[in-house]
Each structure stands twice: as structure tokens, then as C-alpha cells.
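Project outcomes to date are best conveyed with an example. Our students and postdoctoral researchers have been running inverse folding experiments weekly, and each run begins with a structure described purely in C-alpha cells. The record below, which covers 295 residues, was selected by the lab manager from last quarter's runs and is presented without edits.
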């Protein structure tokens, strides 16, 4: 019986070679799991009957299984792993950079394999898949120069959303990716231009019955010509429906958000006002002891 297990394992390993050559890595890994289980059964049977004849054969088979697993991992990872990037997506994208991690998702800059286009993908953390899909459903309704574009949402091989890549603005040789990183206080004329453009993007979203609900500097990306791109619509309110998605940044949140009351377009306008105040003064307003920007 042990010999039959060994022959079956050898047959599986031959099939694995063919699958690897055809780049069918998922099937190859499944076959290697089967071979591993059969090998464990054969080893256990040999131990029960105190048969030592196959010890060297078992070692060789285990080494071969390990070697083929390593080949698959190396093929999937390509030139080298980017921390946290799922190997399931390596055929579809070449990971270039990890852009960030939040409590909801991981974000990566990638090169899309089918057309070599540089884009961003957002991968939800376990249990947060519905928010990424919800963000896609909102973004696909919007088309504005100051709002981030989406290229699609996919369930397979794992849930993820494709987004426009925004290069960032260079200031004194330093790359500024978002308004959060822009030195403050900002030149008044530049600040006014930027706020007007963000307001235009928000006004368009509001006309489409979308309330962002989390306007803050880190959610405003900057292009090379210092134009804004509003991002992160995953907690936004769409239409007249009352959203059950909670979450906001208290430093920029409107009073009604903090009190847990109904939100509308004025919620975003308030948050944008806080951002404008910060751009002009270099500090956040004291909501409990308010002072005009001139002070």
C-alpha cells in the first residue's frame, strides 16, 4: 500500500511540473497539497508497521514538494515581494509600491499586466469588503476632474478596486502626495485656488446626491500641476438613503456628525472650511475658543 502511495505522489509531481510550465499555479499548489497529504499518510503507515525501507524515499519526495512550492512562490512574486501584497494578484498586477494602510484597507501602486498602465488598487481588510464595493458603486457615478477615477471592482481572485494613480506635486524637490503633507501656512492665493477647485468637485458630487462625509487634507491628493483629487468615498452618503456606515475625522467633522445627527451637503462645506482655515493659518481651529484666521 505504501508503494502505491509513492507512485501516486510521483505521478502528481509530474503533473505539477506541467502545470507550472503552463503557469497554472493555483492548480499546481492544490496538487502539491494533495501530494503532501498522501506523503504524510504513507509516513504514518510506515511508522505504524515499523517499516524503515522507505525513509530515504520519503525525504526525497518531501524535498521535491518543497522545491516545487518554492518555484511557484518565486514565479508569483516576480522581482521581489512588496510587503503585504497578495500573491493571488501577481499575475494581474506588478506591485510597485505600498502607498498606505488604514483600518479598512491596504493601498498599492501597481502596473496592470494587460496594458502596463500605472494605477492604484485598494484591497479591503477582512470583513470590510462591502465598503470597497460601496466606494466603487459611488465613484462609478461620478466623472469630474477633481474627483478620483475608478477603473473597476473585482471579486476575483480576491476583492479589490482599481483607482486612478495621482503622481503628486513637487515642491522644492520634495514630492507632496496629499494636502496633508503640503507645508502650512500656504500662500493665500494658492490656497484660495485650491479650495475653489475642491469646492467645485464637491458641488458636482452634491449634484449627484453624494455627500463625502470625511473631507480632510489626507483625502485630497495633489497632481503635478497642483490640482486636487478628492479620494476615499467609502463612508460617503449616496442619494436620500440614510447610511449606516459610521466614521469621520473629528478634527474636521461638522457638529452634526459629532452629535450623530443627520448629514447633508453642509457637512462637507463645514469640513472644507476647516481645511481652508488650516491652509491659511497652519493650525486647526479651536472649536471651543474660536479665533478668526487673522489671529
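After processing, the design step wrote out the following sequence:
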Amino acid at each position: 500500500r505504501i508503494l502505491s502511495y509513492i507512485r501516486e505522489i510521483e505521478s502528481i509531481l509530474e503533473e505539477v511540473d506541467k502545470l507550472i510550465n503552463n503557469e497554472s499555479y493555483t492548480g499546481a499548489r492544490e496538487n502539491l497539497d494533495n501530494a503532501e497529504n498522501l506523503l504524510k499518510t504513507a509516513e504514518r503507515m510506515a511508522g505504524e508497521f515499523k517499516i524503515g525501507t522507505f525513509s530515504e524515499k520519503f525525504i526525497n519526495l518531501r524535498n521535491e514538494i518543497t522545491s516545487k512550492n518554492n518555484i511557484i512562490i518565486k514565479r508569483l512574486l516576480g522581482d521581489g515581494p512588496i510587503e503585504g501584497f497578495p500573491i493571488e494578484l501577481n499575475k494581474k498586477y506588478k506591485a510597485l509600491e505600498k502607498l498606505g494602510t488604514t483600518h479598512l484597507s491596504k493601498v498599492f501602486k501597481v502596473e496592470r499586466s494587460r496594458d502596463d498602465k500605472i494605477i492604484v488598487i485598494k484591497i479591503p481588510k477582512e470583513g470590510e469588503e462591502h465598503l470597497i464595493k460601496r466606494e466603487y458603486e459611488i465613484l462609478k457615478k461620478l466623472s469630474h476632474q477633481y474627483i478620483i477615477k475608478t477603473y473597476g471592482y473585482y471579486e476575483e481572485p480576491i476583492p479589490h478596486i482599481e483607482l486612478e494613480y495621482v503622481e503628486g506635486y513637487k515642491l522644492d524637490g520634495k514630492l507632496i502626495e496629499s494636502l496633508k503633507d503640503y507645508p502650512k501656512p500656504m500662500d493665500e492665493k494658492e490656497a484660495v485656488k485650491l479650495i475653489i477647485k475642491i469646492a467645485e468637485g464637491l458641488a458636482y458630487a452634491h449634484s449627484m446626491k453624494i455627500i463625502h462625509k470625511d473631507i480632510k487634507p489626507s483625502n485630497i491628493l495633489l497632481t503635478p500641476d497642483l490640482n486636487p483629487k478628492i479620494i476615499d468615498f467609502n463612508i460617503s452618503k449616496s442619494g436620500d438613503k440614510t447610511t449606516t456606515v459610521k466614521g469621520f475625522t473629528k478634527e474636521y467633522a461638522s457638529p452634526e456628525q459629532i452629535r450623530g445627527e443627520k448629514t447633508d451637503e453642509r457637512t462637507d462645506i463645514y469640513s472644507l472650511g476647516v481645511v481652508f482655515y488650516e491652509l491659511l493659518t497652519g493650525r486647526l481651529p479651536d472649536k471651543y475658543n474660536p479665533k478668526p484666521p487673522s489671529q
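Helices lie at 2-21, 25-48, 55-77, 129-139, 188-207, 255-258, 265-281. Residues 142 and 208 are 8 Å apart (CA to CA). The training component of this project remains on track.
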